[in-house]
Structures are given as structure tokens and as C-alpha cells.
Design a protein that fits this description.
By secondary structure, this protein is of the alpha/beta class. It has 10 helices and 16 strands. The protein folds into 2 domains: 274 residues, Aminopeptidase (3-Layer(aba) Sandwich), CATH 3.40.630.10; 110 residues, 2-Layer Sandwich (Alpha-Beta Plaits). The longest helix is centred in the N-terminal third of the chain and has 24 residues.
Length: 393
């Protein structure tokens, strides 16, 4: 079976590369993946694969049946949305949608899952059970397409025994993959703050309540969350990336807007940190004469890879690719809405190496305007998913 899957992955590589390039050239933002969904549906229909569509807007769920379809159900997920980034690559498949780009590899995820579906469909007389294929919208924007698809009941008839997610990883060369059992990616919350004061002339600060000064104190004080209050054994991050003080050289504004993110690996501490941040902000701003609106938009939970499933999947990857091509991964402070699936069933979220050992232009980080991949990674991307689908129990 392994040799058959490897042979089919090699056979279909050219077609999957073309699918990936089509998707890359026609990226769509979260909750707007209409043409992307149409493309996925057309490819599934072309191969006679049954699917449901318009789930959580543009989501698609397809099913493949092998022998003894009631024996087991294994799920795979690919996300479809792109990012609001202007692509700077000069390639034939460069984004045709100005200011929108597949800079996080979701075109790779979708095309790889389509490739795995084609392989599994051709071999359906040689494996047992059912495979659920989830093509998900809106991974990049809260509340996340995963949570919405779950709410719309994609597991209401039957919960899969396990679910897999594969994500590009430009820190590894094409041909390699990486696994980490247990906690892997952090929770993520969005913070929106408005500090209100009393604006006026910059030359008369005694007549104003300066929200710019208050905000500067607040940003520094809030770092106590990670530097003094968090358990050193629990990595936490608090970062502010947007500050808007719409005054001028001699104008103190009435208010300042502040936006940031809080991330950690401990859900209990996460909730405690929320309370502490609000209390600190309220008291500090009041002590300086201002008012504050401190809003925390709770985002994705911690992504926990089921240890048994992930270690077994790592063994299967070694069997498929060779030990030299399977790496251990470290913790990531980045976040993923795949975490919602891990709350419902054993989950394994692993990484697909996409860097080129010969071409530095294929090694930029995700969310970069020059992100691209060594497309040989697609052969591993679809093949390994198909192998995990037929081998997992």
C-alpha cells in the first residue's frame, strides 16, 4: 500500500501543482472564499467524490468510503482563506487579486488534501472505513471557521476517531515533516483598548488629561502580566502592535486606541490573566485621571496534539519518508483554530517542510509578501495524508 500511495503521489504531482498554482493566483479573504469553494467542489465532482457545501458560508465536507465503511472514521482538514497582503513574488502564478495573497500556505493545504482525496479514491477497494475531508473557511480571522463548522454540525452524525491537520513549515526543507505530541501552539486573544482623557494644546498639558502619556504607562505596566505574574514554566506573550493617538505635534488628543494580542499555554492562567489585565488597566488609568475601555476578544484555545495519536503518526511518517525526514518540533507561540477540533477528538497537527535547499526565494516565512514553496513538497503533502488515512486506527 505504501508503494502504491507513493507512486500515485508522484503520478498526480503535476496536476496538484497546477491546482495549487490556480489557488495561489486566485486568493480570497476569510469568509469570502466563494470561487475557491467552487474550484474545490469542481475537483471533487470530477473524481466522483460526494460532498456537502455552503457549511459556515463556504465550507465543504466530503466523504470517501472504503471497504467496511462503518469500521472507522478518520478526518482531515485543510483551510482555504488567504491574507490581506500584497504579493511581491514575480511568478507566473502570482496573485491576481490585488492586496490578497496566500502567504500562509492555505493553497498548499487545500491542494494537498485534494491530492490525498484523489489517491484514496483510486485505492478505495484497498482500505477500510470512511474518510472525512474538511475544506474550511476563515482560519485567519476570529472566531475561526473551525468553530463555526463544528457549530453547524459537521460531526453531529458521527465523531471521527481522530483528525489530522497539515500546515506548511518553511523552517524545514521540502521532503521533511515535523511532529510534536502534547501542547504545540498557544491560545490567542485579541485586546482592544481605548484610553480616554481630555485633549487640548500640547503647550498646556496642565489643562489636559493626556491619554498618550497614560497609554505609555499602561503598555509598560501591562508587561507585568508576563514578566512578574506568569509562571516561568508557562510561556506567555503580551504584545501591542497598533497604537493610534490622532493628535499632532502640538495637539493632545481626547483618546488613544490600542490593539494587541495575549497568548499562553495554560487555559487556567489565561482566564486569570484576563482579569488581572482589566483590573490593572482600570486602576492605573483612573489614578492618572482618565477612563479606559478594555475589551478582550477571546480567541483560539491551546492546540493540544493527542500524545498517542501523534507518536503513532510520527512512526507512520518515518515508515513512509524515512527517519531522516521526520523532525521533532518545539513549542510555537503562534495559534491555530485547528485547536477547536482537538477539543472534540484526538488530534494531530503536524508540519510540512516547504523550503527549497537550492532556492532561497522559496524559504521566506509565512505571512511574508514573498512567501512561496518548493512545490516538490506537494508530493509529500498529499502522499503522507493518504498514508495516514489508510494506516491510522
Amino acid at each position: 500500500m505504501k508503494e502504491k500511495i507513493q507512486s500515485l503521489a508522484k503520478k498526480h504531482l503535476g496536476a496538484i501543482v497546477e491546482m495549487r498554482r490556480h489557488l495561489h493566483a486566485h486568493p480570497e479573504l476569510s469568509y469570502k472564499e466563494f470561487k475557491t469553494a467552487d474550484f474545490v467542489q469542481s475537483k471533487l465532482a470530477e473524481h466522483g467524490i460526494v460532498f456537502e457545501h455552503s457549511i459556515a458560508g463556504t465550507g465543504i465536507v466530503a466523504f470517501l468510503e472504503g471497504k467496511n465503511p462503518t469500521k472507522r472514521l478518520i478526518a482531515f482538514r485543510a483551510d482555504m482563506d488567504a491574507l490581506p497582503i500584497l504579493e511581491e513574488n514575480e511568478v507566473s502564478y502570482k496573485s491576481q487579486n490585488q492586496g490578497v495573497m496566500h502567504a500562509c500556505g492555505h493553497d498548499v493545504h487545500t491542494s494537498s488534501l485534494l491530492g490525498a482525496a484523489i489517491i484514496l479514491n483510486e485505492l478505495k477497494e484497498e482500505w477500510e472505513g470512511r474518510i472525512q475531508l474538511i475544506f474550511q473557511p476563515a482560519e485567519e480571522v476570529l472566531p475561526g471557521g473551525a468553530s463555526l463548522m463544528i457549530k453547524e454540525g459537521i460531526f453531529s452524525k458521527q465523531t471521527p476517531q481522530s483528525i489530522f491537520g497539515q500546515h506548511v513549515f518553511p523552517e524545514l526543507p521540502a521532503g521533511k515533516v515535523g511532529f510534536r505530541p502534547g501542547a504545540y501552539m498557544a491560545s490567542t486573544d485579541e485586546i482592544y483598548v481605548t484610553v480616554k482623557g481630555k485633549g487640548g494644546h500640547g503647550a498646556k498639558p496642565d489643562r489636559n488629561i493626556d491619554p498618550v502619556l497614560i497609554t505609555s504607562h499602561l503598555i509598560v505596566a501591562l508587561q507585568q502580566v508576563v514578566s512578574r505574574w506568569a509562571n516561568p514554566a508557562t510561556p506567555s506573550v503580551l504584545s501591542f502592535g497598533k497604537v493610534i493617538a490622532n493628535g499632532a505635534t502640538n495637539i493632545i488628543p481626547n483618546e488613544v486606541k490600542l490593539e494587541g494580542t495575549f497568548r499562553t499555554f495554560d487555559e487556567t492562567w489565561r482566564k486569570e490573566a484576563h482579569v488581572r489585565m482589566v483590573e490593572l488597566a482600570t486602576q492605573l488609568v483612573k489614578s492618572m485621571g482618565g477612563e479606559v475601555d478594555f475589551r478582550i476578544e477571546v480567541g483560539y484555545p491551546v492546540l493540544n496534539n493527542n500524545e498517542t495519536l501523534t507518536l503513532k503518526s510520527k512512526e507512520l511518517a518515518i515508515e513512509y519518508l524515512g527517519k531522516e525526514n521526520v523532525e521533532d518540533l518545539g513549542l510555537r507561540m503562534t495559534a491555530e483554530d485547528f485547536a477547536y477540533y482537538s477539543q472534540h477528538m484526538p488530534a494531530c497537527f503536524y508540519r510540512l517542510g516547504t523550503a527549497s535547499p537550492k532556492d532561497d526565494s522559496k524559504s521566506y516565512a509565512v505571512h511574508n509578501s514573498r512567501f512561496d514553496i518548493d512545490e516538490n513538497a506537494l508530493e509529500v503533502g498529499m502522499g503522507l495524508m493518504a498514508w495516514l488515512a489508510v494506516s491510522s486506527r
